[in-house]
Fold this protein.
Amino acid sequence: MPDALFYHADCRHFRGDIPCAPNKREGVHCDGCPYYQPVTENILIIKLGAAGDVLRTTPLLHPLKAEHPNARIWWLTQTTELVPRSHVDRILKWSTESLETLGGIHFARLINLDKDAHACALASRLKADKKEGFVLGSFGESKPANDRAQFKFNTGIFDDVSIANRKDYFTELFEICGYTYAGEAYILDPVESMAFPELDRSYPLVGLNTGAGARWTSRLWSTEQWIKLVEMILASGRGVLLLGGPDEDARNHEISKATGGRAQYIGYYHLKEFIALMNQCELVVSGVTMGMHIAIALKKKLVLINNIFNPFEFADLFGLGEIVQPDKQCKCFFRGQCVNPDYFCLDHMPAEKLFAAVERVWTGKFKQEPLHSPGVVLSTSPVSKQ
């Protein structure tokens, strides 16, 4: 049996199952390797989804890496494309193989930021010196893993407590882990350059992210109002690019057709291509969606449409833009369908209001109007407005 080769099992680059990147690139071995970076501990982040929430968790990596420069950071997720490989050593997608791997590792810190039962069960089961965020309770419920997670837990169990909250998401996120939020930015790996030959770049582009997903009809602005907004933007000398996924495909085709194709729509794409496409825009109009978080990560000017969520959660837009809400208060806090029998709040957000916000944000002269939180309609017989 041949002698074992010398290797650094504690090196940040070492894998054990395949050659490390420096060996692949330059043929170096561990003995005397100039790329040797010893790690002294393992840290795990569990943030599975939705995709936008994964991206808006990345600011946490700034203080985490500053406090633990010699840690190997692991991240378990369902959207691996949005976890920055420049800052995370091991990115695992939720799978049987990943769970087996994590079960064999002892972590110095385990940070679970999801309240879903399966994420909490895993956080409860894995070995760690310190657990932060959420674990599983005796009756299968989510519960705080540490005292600092109590506030975030409270806002998730009672609507009135959530509506009264005035902390933004990042402040809550950092508090869970014992940090003070100071405006740390999203982290997104460099966007791959892609050619979109069918895209007309003769004018600076405003991207309109027109949907909110199939289950969130309470957040859908009318197609007629989108068309009006398109006409106003085009008349101002700017181009329009319609953005969305498969749920928005029919709507975007309709908007483009109604404007004689002047509102450009070149289809929907997988995530990496969607990011590259949005990167063609100078300003993005979006609801509270994954598209909003991508726009922030790309540092695009942003007009954010909000109605059913507590706007203070999104109050920090990093100086990129402003939040626009309907003129009539939304009564359906965090509901997927409108159940207010009196009115649908987005019918009271005219295109002129959105266009005025586009103009302010475009010129950098925006000033956030007073924010108002949604209310709650208690009804046993919901009336859908969509």
In short: The chain has two domains: 41-176, 205-363. The first strand starts at residue 41 and ends at 46. The CA atoms of residues 339 and 382 lie 5 Å apart.
